[in-house]
Amino acid sequence: MFANNGITTAKMSAAFYACLLAQFLYDTQHAKLPRACFSFSKRGVLRQSFSLLKFTRKRGRDNDSNCGLVSRTVMSTIEMEKNEFTFIWRIKNFSFCNQPKDTWLDSPKYIVHSMDCTEWFLRLYPNGRMFDSYIPCFLRRSDSCERSEHLELDCEMFVVSSDGSQAFTKVIGGLVFKKGTGFGFPYFIRREELHKNRNKYLPNDTLTICCHMWKPVSNVAILALCSASTRIGVETRYYTWSIEDFISRNWQQKVRIPVVAASKLRPDLNIYFFLTISDDHLQITFEQINPKQSSGIFFNCEIAILDSKGNPLDTKKSEHMFTPSEKDWKFPPFIQKSKLIRHSETYLVEDKLSLRCKFAISLGVVSEQIEKIIYGPSKSEHMEDTLYKTNQLHSKNQSNLQNDMYRLYIEQQLCDLAVRTENTKVLVHKAVICSRSQVFKNLVENNKDVKTTGIIDIADIDSDILNRMLTFMYTDIVYDISSENAMQLYLAAVDYKVNGLRNLCSSIIKEKVSVENVCDTLIFATVHDDTDIKLASQNFICENSDEIFNSDMWKNFMAEWNQLAGETMHKAWLEKH
Question: Which residues are in the BTB domain (predicted)?
Fold first, then answer.
């Protein structure tokens, strides 16, 4: 991923970048950078090599409209670790955002555990600033976190198009975030271009913003992705009105037609009809009954004149944003009284004018939630699902519970127990781990040392496996890990009787069987008497027997495990004959 502070490469797993290359690679045309050459080494490390180049970027703070130019030099062929986090925010019914100009909409807040447990959110100005035609967006750090006072990050932000491609891509490098501060892009999205290409940038009236943030140098490569959504409520109503005695009516007097609300959330509006003296147009005016000072009212309206059979003859569409202090708004004129009278046999059957109005009125933000969290490196199909398959998300209750439980674990607040290994100590909650593990429950209830010290000592698990096991106990989530680590986690789940984790690790091990590791997997299954993993391993060998049986790996396996090798080869022979 490109950045303008000298970061040119990422050291990630090939599985994670297999999908990111298709969707997250920097659009070199928009960035005005030369195309980079990408290649994977045997270990799956992404390498980038490109020549020395120099470029400038505009950078803005969200509390200062001034922008400065930042020059960076990108050195050739650099390789380093990157601690990364990607946040995807979907704003549903985006065109109904009711924030006036210079007023923002904040995303749901999210915690980046790998960056000192700091809390973040995006701040978007849906209707822009007062004197420009752009939609600004900023990455902000919450002021509630008590961790690092200063945190240096790089940031890339873009809109995800309907076809999964990037648009309006922006990059900032070398940012130092203090608590309660933010950086971003005052000229992020051009409003006219966004609404002109709604099918591309607003599919189903949903704006999808992706914010990719990373620390330049880290001891380990940590990857995570979080998706969230904000839904703007919309109430749509249809009305059909018949105005009798149209020709003889005194149109200098206003005809009032109230809009009856079906929802308590919807603002009150009245509609007035009256005749303008200047051009003979029948003026339609909308009046805001109880103006609110906190936010505006956005609505769109379609008005049609109907014939005697209820078919529309003339139709006019328009939309308007009521500011908090604005009292009324005039619908664009389109009905002339003289025309209606001239063609009264069509428009005024029995001296009656029939109108049909369709209103869609914004209710403001009605829901916001964290929908999915993926810890990585993550499988490409998971990433694609999160980024681009918008209709296949976790249920609201499940995803909210997982997110809340993960917060409970990483924030380590209100804890009443500690789990300690040789090099780490993790604070936990008795109620959680005892409900997930009978072994932990017995230790808490019956072990005198644990009762006295409030510490459970574990010597047979390293800190990484312990963290993965505890994360599962809180959230039912397992990182996308290697086959070897999945085996270690499997054994921990067996030792501490976390049955759900054992079953999940078994599925992961079977899924990750390959030509390179199938012998180790078969040995593991045999030693630990797991018939499902053993059968999956043997089936894989049978399906790839020509390649495996001719390998040096299989020769070594036969020398050490001759009975198991004979059993497997016999199974392969039976399947072929």
Answer: 415-476
pTM: 0.53
Q: What pLDDT, on a 0 to 100 scale, did the predictor assign at position 561?
A: 92
The C-alpha atoms of residue 420 and residue 456 are separated, in whole angstroms, by 6
pLDDT tens for each residue of 333-375: 877 888 888 888 888 888 888 888 888 888 888 888 888 777 6
Task: For residue 540, count other CB atoms closer than 10 A to its CB.
Answer: 19
207 has a pLDDT exceeding 90:
yes
Determine contact, residues 466/424, Cβ cutoff 8 Å. Answer: yes
Contact 56, 69 (CB under 8 A): yes
Window from 199-203, 356-360, 455-459 with minimum mean pLDDT:
356-360
Going by C-alpha positions, the residue among 160, 136, 28 that lies closest to residue 87 is 160
Please tell me the distance from the alpha carbon of residue 362 to that of residue 235, in angstroms, as a whole number. 7
What does the alpha-carbon distance between residue 419 and residue 428 come to, in Å, rounded to a whole number?
7
Nearest alpha-carbon partner for 198 in 162, 227, 236, 152? 162
Residues facing 122 on adjacent strands: 139
Residues 6+ apart with CB under 8 A from 58: 67, 68, 69, 185, 187
CB 303 within 8 A of CB 315: yes
Beta bridge partner(s), residue 425: 420
In terms of Cβ atoms closer than 10 Å to its own Cβ (0-12, 13-18, 19+), residue 175 is buried
pLDDT exceeds 80 at position 473 = yes
User: Span 135-159, mean pLDDT?
Assistant: 86
Question: What do you get for the CA distance between the two ends of the chain, in Å?
Answer: 51
Contact 394, 374 (CB under 8 A): no
For residue 364, give Cα distances in angstroms to 230, 266, 299, 516.
10, 9, 11, 55
Integer Cα distance of 238 and 362 in angstroms = 15
Give residues with Cβ within 8 angstroms of 570, minimum separation 6. none
Count Cα atoms within 13 angstroms, Cβ side, for 78. Answer: 19
Determine the pLDDT at residue 367. Answer: 86
Dist CA 183 CA 176 (whole Å): 9
Of the candidates 386, 375, 458, which has an alpha carbon nearest to the alpha carbon of residue 409?
375
Q: What average pLDDT does the structure give for the chain?
A: 75
Residue 290: pLDDT band with limits 50, 70, 90: low
Q: What is the per-residue pLDDT for 362?
A: 84
Distance CA 438, CA 277 (A): 84
DSSP output for 173-190:
EEEEEETT-EEEEEEEEE
SS (H, E, C) 449-478: HHHHHCEEECCCCCHHHHHHHHHHHHHCCC
Q: Which residue has the tokens 């607003």?
A: 202
CA distance 117 to 407: 9
The helix/strand/coil state of 170 is: strand
Q: Which is it for strands 328-330 and 134-141: parallel, antiparallel or unpaired?
A: unpaired
pLDDT of residue 167: 93
Whether the predicted pLDDT of 202 surpasses 80: yes
